[in-house]
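Lab channel / #folding
Pinned by the channel admin:
"Please post every new chain as: sequence first, then the structure tokens as a reply. Keep commentary short and put observations after the output so the thread stays searchable."

First post following the new format, from NK:
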Amino acid sequence: MLSNGSRYLQFIAVATMATLISLTPGAHAQDSGTADAAEKPYRIDPDGTTDWATFNGFRRYNGNCLACHGPDGAGSSFGPALMESLKRLSYEQFFETVVNGKSDVNTATTLKMPALGTDRNVMCYIDDIYAYLKARSDGALGGGRPAKHDAKPPEAAEAEAACMAN
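Reply from TO:
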């Protein structure tokens, strides 16, 4: 019989593999009805309504990332501006940095990102956080809380319950 810690680590391994398998072109796209929808992991309607994942990403970012990376992903003295970083980082690079952390220490700077690969409050919502930050990076979403958003779909509630329950 596995201990709770062993079951959690097994869950993380399975969840990480599932995420890596899903890293196919367009796997994170929301259907916005435009030709370039396959390249975007978010949807923002002309009236400013965001898809649930992007709105949830805003919420999760503010709960887990804001202290170091500042409001709206704009950066701070503790962490770089993620809205700028995502102009050059792929989803895979973003994912790897969040899971494994990063250290850039030299005589001029000391930058350390902790490994968050076992933090369910981050990993269960990694795609949503990415969607929010990518929308900010692309200039498709302004600062602050999105004014309007889609309702939480049943699939998102089921995925959240399954991820957080393990």
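NK: The radius of gyration is 16 Å.
TO: also worth noting, Residues 1-11, 16-37 have pLDDT under 50 and may be disordered.
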